[in-house]
Amino acid sequence: MAKWTAKHEAPEPLEGPVVATVTGGTILWFALFVVQLPFYGWFADRGQLWWVWTCAAGGFLGLIGIWYVRGREAALKRHAAAAATTGQGEQGSGGAAA
């Protein structure tokens, strides 16, 4: 059996409002948790408490996600600023030498 190789390069990853997306999802999980709390007894009677605790876990994991994506975005901005500074310095010295 021959090894499969890709015929095209992989596209660049899509960047978007990642922090806003994760924050919105976290708010949604917590909102679902709060909405289900008045029905805690109903869920308990039917053995469906996992619905309530899944929403709580989603909210708390979302908090970790917000912390992570904010740090990632800050690191990307620092890298872009450092690359711009380095690239600008090379262009300036190359122009002066020519």
Write a brief caption for the model:
The protein contains three helices and no strands. It is mainly alpha-helical and 98 residues long.
Q: What can you tell me about this protein's structure?
A:
Helix 1 (18-36) runs antiparallel to helix 3 (49-97). This protein has 98 residues and is an all-alpha fold. It has helices at 18-36, 40-45, 49-97.
Topology overview:
Layout: H1 18-36, H2 40-45, H3 49-97
Helix pairs in contact: 1-3
Low-confidence stretches: none
Mean pLDDT across residues: 88
Total of helices: 3
- Whole-angstrom Rg: 24 Å
Structural class: mainly alpha
Give the percentage of residues in beta strands.
under 5%
Distance between the termini: 55 Å
Instruction: Characterize the main sheet.
Output: none
Helix content: over 70%
The helix/strand series, from N terminus to C terminus, equals HHH
Q: What form results from the Cα inertia axes?
A: flat
**Number of distinct beta strands:** 0
Defining key terms:
98 residues, mainly alpha, 3 helices
